[in-house]
Amino acid sequence: MNQSLVLRCAGRPVGRYAYRPELDPHLSPRPYLHPVTTLAGTPVSELCPADHPHHLGVGVAVPDVAGRNFWGGRTFVRDQGPVDLDNHGVQRHQGFKLQDPDGFVEDLTWSAGGEVLLSERRTVAAVELTAAAWALDFTFSLTNATGAVLSVGSPATNGRPGAGYGGFFWRAPKESAPPRVFTADTDGEASGHAARADWLALSGDGWTLVFAGATATTRHDPWFVRATEYPGVGSSLAADARLPVAPGDTVVRRVVTVVVDGALERDEAAALVRKAVTA
Fold this sequence. Notes:
8% of the residues lie in helices and 48% in strands. It is mainly beta and 279 residues long. Strands 8-9-10-11-20-16-15-14 form an eight-stranded antiparallel sheet. Strands 4, 5, 12, 13, 17, 18 and 19 form a seven-stranded antiparallel sheet that branches. The longest helix is centred in the last third of the chain and has 13 residues, at 266-278.
């Protein structure tokens, strides 16, 4: 049976977190947030869309941890392309250290082939910013639970240019027209993709999402952006090179996403990011 909780902001439901979902192993089962909505109730996340059934709302997904797939779907193999492999991992909920209406602290394990590769501490909070905006504050800490170095990769590090995805990822709803993409000083999907920008916005029909790296380390990771093919934004752990994680070492990232009713201009987006990151 699926087990989930409702995430609330200022008393209003803004998301549902499935912490023990029932999913096909080919999807790399993992906890996720969906649906996520604006304060007015507009949906801004998507679950198992036809174009990419393994896109599970909002969460953490990594396509290559020591050769294991925690993203779902096919695995990109150098000199072969996408291949269906029996290498899917699973993120398992171990318990809540804290559980409030507006957030939680959760422990998880990342397992594959009968072995726990990573342990995770996940902290999620919903913060009210204005009458039309709230922020999802999402931190994940991944600790190598094995006795050997773990190498984190992506399709890009395995030979597919421009596909450096893996880490925090938000799948947004597909609409009749692609969403607008902009940063503090650029416009468009091509300019935003792979950029190391302090924040990046995705604006659709009646909603805007503004993604911000909330630590220096997170801001160093480039954004993975899709708008034309499908709407999604992620913060890339291994965009250009594989990320080695020594035994017992921990990788920590914090992404704060401003969720807004309506469209935003640059100055409005920047002001809300400043408020959200310091809230």
